[in-house]
Design brief:
PGDYG_prot; 33% strand; PGDYG protein; 5 strands; mainly beta
Amino acid sequence: MKTLKAIKKPITVKAEQTDEHKDIQTLEGTMHANPGDYIITGPGGEQWPVKKEIFEKTYEIIEDKG
């Protein structure tokens, strides 16, 4: 087996912070988003919820359309 080092390519996603409880249809099935969580939409239209604390640690805001 060949071992490689790799770095994940940066991919721009859309992020919206929800103010209500929502069920999100993801590629893995239905996931729940709580108020304050972010709903991320990927380049293929796929969505997934991310907790506010995780979002702030792992995503960088590059544009704010308020």
